[in-house]
Specification:
Family: Belongs to the beta sliding clamp family.
CATH superfamily of the largest domain: DNA Polymerase III, subunit A, domain 2
InterPro entries: DNA_clamp_sf, DNA_polIII_beta, DNA_polIII_beta_C, DNA_polIII_beta_cen, DNA_polIII_beta_N
Largest sheet: 9 strands, antiparallel
Keywords: Cytoplasm, DNA replication, DNA-binding, DNA-directed DNA polymerase, Nucleotidyltransferase, Transferase
Radius of gyration: 25 Å
Strand content: 35-45%
Domain DNA polymerase III beta sliding clamp N-terminal: 1-122
Shape: elongated
Helix content: 10-25%
Organism: Psychrobacter piechaudii
Strand order of the largest sheet: 14-11-12-13-26-25-24-18-22
């Protein structure tokens, strides 16, 4: 395999896919990027067998190649390309002795390779269900819910995000058992169409990253993306070519995102949505954030518990203490209706919700030991549930 390509073009493609490479090296070859040169394309692929990212780069405009394939260490290849001078040509020649020679100007590097035939591929979705929606809507659904995914849990399905379609709405849900985040949007599907799929944490992070990178390219000229759900996989193709004066993107670079879905049943989130809440507080997000950050300084380091005492006159006492007998107390004025109530939250959980909201925030409560529904005023498309703590 031989390749001669502009440094910026190669680096752009590597930047888009390199994060999918397996840093833990469960299989040594997955620490590499696969490079395949065809008559018209350079195809770069990185994978950890959970997420696979593949970039197709059209050859031309000075880029040339000799058909062949190899794999190179992802980190080393990325660092070499990143640190070479701008607007130079990079030449790669893969030799039969499991070595690849990389030259650019006066620089020369020799990297060890592994056979491309050893690089596993995830494959394509079967029995597909395509969903088309705007990139901006997809980014909103993911950004407003992904913080609530569990990091590690024996209930492995909680370490991902639920994508559910019902009643012509796409709903994303994430929960770690202590808090739940939900976002929904109307999409163009048949009235009776339903589906569920759970996307793993890393896949959520990578798809969100790619969507945001695409947003930087298109700006206000936002387009649609098609999510292709299969029985085992989700696949999305995103354009990253050149943008013309009308905002259209050509197909000089395309990235295909493929992720293995979590095989499990997500809990029925509707059962934990609070109802019959007879105590409602309206609070300014910025004021509550400032008070919460100050008071939580003296909260217990492990539980991070902060106590809220709501009075009928709208005065809220916010306090925290710890094992060293430190204590912080601050008053917050809110609009409140209902009987007095005192309950405590994990400060970090409440702050995570406040970070994705703006303006007036509504807390819907019933009892001190019952979950609390939080949402932005007059916004039922984004809803958050936080379980209270016992301090």
């Amino acid at each position: 395999m031989q390749l001669s390509i502009n440094r910026e073009l190669l680096l752009k493609a590597i930047n888009l896919i390199a994060k999918a490479a397996d840093k833990r090296h469960n299989m040594v070859v997955l620490g590499n990027i696969k490079l395949e040169v065809t008559e018209q394309l350079l195809i770069l692929t990185a994978s950890d067998l959970e997420v696979e990212l593949s970039a197709e780069v059209k050859l031309g405009n000075g880029a040339t190649g000799v058909i062949g394939a190899t794999t190179l260490p992802a980190y080393k290849l990325h660092e070499i390309c990143k640190l070479l001078p701008k607007d130079t040509m990079i030449n790669l020649t893969a030799e039969a002795n499991e070595r690849c020679i990389i030259t650019s100007g006066k620089s020369r590097f020799v990297l060890g390779t592994l056979p491309a035939s050893e690089f596993p591929v995830l494959g394509n979705p079967a029995n597909i269900t395509p969903l088309t929606l705007s990139r901006a809507v997809l980014m909103d659904l993911m950004a407003k819910t992904q913080f609530a995914m569990a990091i590690q849990d024996v209930r492995y399905y909680l370490t991902g995000m639920l994508f559910e379609v019902a009643q012509r709405q796409l709903t994303t849900v994430a929960t770690d058992g202590h808090r739940l985040a939900l976002a929904r949007s109307v999409i163009d599907v048949a009235d009776d169409f339903t589906m569920q799929a759970i996307l793993p944490r890393k896949a959520v992070v990578e798809l969100e990253r790619l969507g945001n990178e695409l947003g930087k390219l298109v700006g206000d000229n936002d387009g649609n993306l098609t999510l292709v759900f299969g029985r085992e996989f989700l696949q999305v193709t995103l354009p990253f070519g050149n943008v013309d004066s009308t905002g259209e993107i050509d197909d000089s670079i395309k990235v295909t995102f493929t992720a293995r879905l979590i095989d499990g049943k997500f809990p029925d989130y509707r059962r934990v949505m609070p109802n019959n809440t007879d105590k409602i507080a309206l609070v300014n997000k910025e004021q509550m954030t400032e008070v919460l950050r100050r008071v939580s300084i003296l909260s217990n380091e492990k539980s991070r518990g902060v106590i809220f005492k709501f009075s009928q006159d709208g005065n809220v006492e916010v306090r925290a203490n710890n094992a060293e007998q430190d204590e912080a107390v601050e008053a917050l004025q809110v609009k409140y209706q209902g009987e007095p109530i005192e309950l405590s939250f994990n400060a970090a959980y409440l702050q995570d919700v406040l970070d994705v909201l703006a303006g007036e925030v509504q807390l819907n409560m019933s009892q001190a030991n019952s979950s609390v529904l939080v949402n932005q005023l007059n916004d039922t498309q984004h809803q958050y549930v936080i379980m209270p703590m016992r301090i």
